[in-house]
Specification:
The chain is built from two helices and four strands; from the N terminus they run H-H-E-E-E-E. By secondary structure, it is an alpha+beta fold.
Length: 129
């Protein structure tokens, strides 16, 4: 009787553990799936960044310097981190009519959210001075 009760307890525990392991979060997409989606984000940033009010008489050229996708192995909800790097060149006429050129780099950090299947901006506030 004791042996049967112990066997039943072990079987019940195994069944509960088996169903608990079956509960998983959203499926983690492959790097080959998320990288083109981050490229689409880069294209949208470039398009929006180059749209400037003509009254300002500033022309901006955004060039994608690189797209990096890194795995976040311990986070099933946000399994990928991405960075889009740009080289930006702006040209503006000064009060004397001469063109002033400014070149700088910017980067934008993202994480891939499996619940909504999209890259979302990963805001990192700068430390206070």
């Amino acid at each position: 009787m004791r042996l049967a009760a112990a066997a039943l307890g072990v079987a019940l525990a195994a069944a509960v553990a088996g169903t608990g392991c079956g509960v998983r979060g959203p499926e983690v997409p492959a790097r080959e799936v998320v990288t083109p989606l981050l490229q689409q984000e880069a294209d949208a940033l470039k398009r929006d960044g180059e749209k400037l009010d003509p009254v300002l008489r500033v022309k901006a050229t955004w060039t994608v310097a690189g797209i990096d996708v890194k795995e976040r192995p311990n986070d099933r909800d946000k399994p990928w981190a991405g960075t889009i790097r740009f080289k930006i060149r702006s040209e503006a006429k000064n009060e004397r009519g001469l063109v002033e050129v400014d070149e700088f780099e910017r980067h934008f950090d993202y994480v891939y959210n499996t619940a909504i299947k999209r890259w979302i901006f990963n805001y990192q506030p700068s430390p206070a001075p």
